[in-house]
User: Fold this.
Amino acid sequence: MISVEGLTAGPLFGLPLPEVWYGLMFTLLATFLFLDGFDFGAGAIYGLLDTDRQREAVLAAVGPFWDGNEVWLVVFGGALFAAFPAAYAGLFSRHYLLMFAILGALIIRGLAPEMYEQRHDNLWQRAWSVAFVAGSVLAPFFLGVFAGNWLVGNEGSISLIGLVVGVTLTLLTVVSGAAFLRLKAQHDLPPVVSTYGQLAVVGYLLAVVATLAVLAMRLPEGITTLLDPLIIVLVVASIVLAAGYILALRREQNLIALGIAGVMTYGLITVVARIMYPAIDPATGATIRETIVSTLPLNLMTIGAGLLLPLVVVYFAVLYTAFSGPITPEEAY
Assistant:
């Protein structure tokens, strides 16, 4: 039985809770980047479509999901703040301009579809369409810039590694978005959407190579860090998965293609987490065990997360079940 004395005496059930929360934090980030990632990718592809009907199909496809998917970003930020408050404070104070840029892009992305429907005026709808595309592209790009700076401990907002990771993450969202749109709106969108996904996955692999090259120059131990067996396996797996993604799209196995995109997203975040570990804030050299909160609040948070996260997962299972299957012609945002 759990008691107050037991909660203050040591980690819950003897678990390595700093590592558990480190892994949980990056799992939450990967979940956001996959679920909201296909929304971002759909928004990028929206800008490449020709007709109002096609653009309306994109909005109808992402409409039930995008605002719910953003919950995972809030949960990620909450986990970082709750478990590693010193790292949270350092990261967000050094990169507050990037935080505002990310929030601004997310706001524009969310506001644009709502405003688009308010007036049936060509100039008005064209302006908000541009805003929707801009928000959908800039949000993952700025998130990638933030992740790149965090990974190498860069204290400025703009850096080469940040720009490269930003491009990498943006391309990965297009990979997810193409598979999602083919799954949800295959009969309302042209086959070229599949081509966009295939081009994006090739671009993603090239961007990964560029990212690894920059990391080899920026990391303290250089290429030695990147020769970790887990990182090598994940990079090789990305190449195999990319080939499988292209094959799945060509065979119109769109759900498989979307699943592959998800595995690639989790794989990318695993590489980031592995490179950074055991540090949580490379800029200061602080490790997860140095910055984790004290035993009692950590144990209480672990119990709370164990109770609440399954409920969130159930909610999303219900959401995606309720809106499963392709959209119908009469559906609108």
User: Anything to note?
Assistant: Residues 183 and 255 are 6 Å apart (CA to CA). The first strand starts at residue 279 and ends at 281. The beta strands are 279-281, 286-287.
